[in-house]
Amino acid sequence: MSEYSVLIKKTEKFILVNYFLESVLSVLDPKQDINLLPPNTTYSALGKHIRENLSKSREIDFDELRAIMSLDSDDIFLKSLEQKIKEEFSYKNKKEIYKNMDFLSVSIMNNIIIITPWHQDSLDGYTAIEDENRKWVRFEYPIDISDEELGKVVMEGFKYCTSIYKKK
Fold first, then answer.
1. Could you give the CA distance from residue 10 to residue 25 in angstroms, rounded to a whole number?
2. What is the pTM of this model?
3. What structural domains does the chain harbor?
4. Could you give the 3-state DSSP secondary structure of residue 78?
5. pLDDT at 120
């Protein structure tokens, strides 16, 4: 059962899509490009960008995972990402970047697209949102939905994101 996934971060200033390398742990590919989309990106353009990143997500073996982890690549990648965001949007610090951010993942598993909104529980951390039956909130769609429809359901999925930093 292969899974391919991306994490989408959204603020009032940008949308960022990062893809994962999948092993016993999911890790961000430290070699991926950092492309910050404007928040008013069309549904079609967003859906296309998400699909492009999903196509780069792949399974890796334990040796490749160990190599990435030993170089602390995840931390280095996140620091360079934060630096680019600070420079491009004049943020002063990490807190300004993350305090109004929504997190959502898009995965492909068993030929189904799964959209999972997340609860922000720390500046750059997130956990599952549970419904009243203690099941994760997630939405499933056929793999062949159009780019426009994918972009639309992702933007709608952000409405379910919650955060310790936002008042209800």
1. 24
2. 0.91
3. 3-163 (3.40.1590.10)
4. helix
5. 95
